[in-house]
Amino acid sequence: MVRMAMKWLLAAVLSLLAAGTVLAQGKGRAAPEQTVKIAFMDPLSGPFAAVGQAILKHFQYSAEIVNAKQLAGPGVKFEIVPFDNKGSPQESLTLLRSIIDQGIHYVTQGNGSHVAIPLSDAIAKHNERNPGQAIVYLNYAAVDPDLTNSKCNFWHFRFDANTDMKMEALTEYMKDRPEIKSVYLINQNYSHGHQVARVAKELLARKRPDIKIVGEDLHPLGQVRDFSPYIAKIRASGADAVITGNWGTDLTLLVRAARDAGLNVNFYTYYAGVTGTPTAMGAAGADRVRQISYWHPNIEKYPGEDIYLGFKKKFGEDWYTLAAYTSMTMLAEAIKRSKSTDPLRVAYTMEGLKMPSVMGEIEMRATDHQLQQPLFISTWVKAGGAVKYDTEKTGYGFKTERAFPTYVASQPTSCNMQRPPRPQ
Amino acid sequence: MNFEFALIQLLNGISYGLLLFMLSSGLTLIFSMMGVLNFAHASFYMIGAYLAYQISKWIGYWPALVIAPLAVGLIGALIERWGLRRVHKWGHVPELLFTFGLSYIIVELVQVIWGRAAVPYAVPAALDGPIDWLADLGITFPEYRAFMMLVAVLMLAALYLLLTRTRIGLVIQAALTHPHQVEALGHNVPRVFMLVFGGGCALAGLAGVIGGNAFVTQPAMAAELGAIIFVVIVVGGMGSLAGAFVASLAIGVMQTFAVASDASLSGLAELVGVTVTPQTFGYSVWKLTVAQVAPVLPFLLLVLILIVRPKGLMGTRED
Predict the structure, then answer these.
(1) Which residues between 85 and 124 in chain B have a beta carbon less than 8 angstroms from any beta carbon of chain A?
(2) Domain-by-domain residue ranges, chain A?
(3) What is the spatial distance between Cα B39 and Cα B291, in angstroms, rounded to a whole number?
(4) Which ipTM value was assigned to this complex?
(5) Which CATH architecture has domain A32-161+305-372?
(6) Do the chains contact at A228 and B225, CB–CB below 8 Å?
(7) How far apart are CA B277 and CA B225, in angstroms?
(8) Domain A164-293+374-409 bears CATH identifier 3.40.50.2300
(9) pTM for the whole thing?
(10) Do A225 and B291 touch (CB under 8 A)?
């Protein structure tokens, strides 16, 4: 008797589930949902909370712009749902579970390739097993080249320029500066730092074989308080330029220790503009810290000025992660063009999508889902004149040294993309 | 390694070691007095830095150098009086848990008041720049680091004199080993405890004033130094001020020199005629340089000390 009841119950549950799936699929195809939820997953507590919280505001502000201008089509609204992954890969995969359970189809994450790689992998596996509930992954800052090469997948889209692209532009600039004779590499001891060191050596050997790499250090991520021993080492090596992929306190402490020790070298950095870094760097970095980035507040003819000023007015903080805006507007454009919020259709529309953005024409390259965009080398200098806006009220800001059109930093890819069947 | 390089590294190591000492002296003092392992100690270091930032914004750095540690000491004393003392009667584990919870509360409070990002707490202009007469000799050493060393040495001297040459110092030392007899002699031992806890916190606060602008003042600063000061007091010997001093210097100097060394196991292997290539088994371990493992060395030392000499370099406790 009991067994019979169980069987019935099981059958009932199964049929309900099946009906639910059919309904869910039907819904995606019929008309666009009114609200598109985008899960924002990054450290919102702990040592890197300041960065995560600031970028969350960037995304919320970008979503507001999309909603106000109806960039995703009439009636389609974006909503950012924050999740705190504490910067940990394990935590992120657990959160992904709950994101899937909440029926969210778009995920954005950026702080750390050590999170991005397993996350991208988990999303691809999930999508393969559950084609009806696919997730699209918008990576706004994790720059490990592998993500768009050996480990590429159809559901991952990168909006930052990867390590190789940035180093291509950086070395293009260094190539034309004969005063650079010996270079020191100092990086954090994890995947990103290793990649920076590797590609710097590769490209310098190709473009300026006369430049000597006089030293190389890998230090633990976020644990070094006193950089003065490293600075003494750099001085002893006789380097005139330092290349570093360091970010956060690892960069500020490095620059400050250099200033304190009177070390007169130029720093070629990836992340001098990230929240908190300009404040801590202050005058210590003046005229000697250069940054390679896809945007900074003082680009000539000032694209994106309204976004920068609007954000500052609203939050009293500096806008710097343009990728938040780029990714939200590109997602909106893809939803508008495909007239659907179905992840598969949106992903197929986004693949190869070309559109104007604040920096000019951008393209989500179809072969590897790596955004193609212009890059800029800038120097940290005293504000005034061409340097219209200082950063974080420090009195210092970024000045463009050289602008690189998109093609300069463009890289070949080894990605062999496996695509799901195209929707009818 | 030439002479100038070695000298700078030595100075760097000593100044970093002295900062560690400023932090760990308070911790070890509190431990030896009250048997409380104060988990929130590095948090008082952070409060010191933030208060110094705020005060130096209002009335300048020099008043902050005096006011901030006193304020931190006062906060510490109040916490002892109204928090720790109540927990005290339940034994050491609740005390430990109390300070553990306290460290989290302090971090959250700091974030509420000053925000999650770093604050621009700068070195005073008078001490900004290298030491001129050393620079003439071709050695660039920042004035502020020298100042840091000076403050630490003065503090050590003052602490030593206070503990050995004054009446209150005698009472503190007596209360350390024989609290009941001291109480029977008419001294207010709970108040002595409060003074010691407040004093220990003030020392951490002073380290914060000095270290906050030498490094970066941000909410994560307590967690970053928290682990290393425990290493210092365990290696030096729980409750031993002299031990903490020796251990701080040793760890500071060891870390700076380790960073400078590019020696690795593969280099060692080559000396005995074995060539290590990327194909060798365990290549990632072979190619690790001393510089790369430098941050782990203090913890390695901690483990070694616990195995070889559990009471620490100069500890007296056998238990």
Answers:
(1) 111, 115-120, 122
(2) 32-161+305-372, 164-293+374-409
(3) 29
(4) 0.79
(5) 3-Layer(aba) Sandwich (3.40)
(6) no
(7) 37
(8) yes
(9) 0.81
(10) no
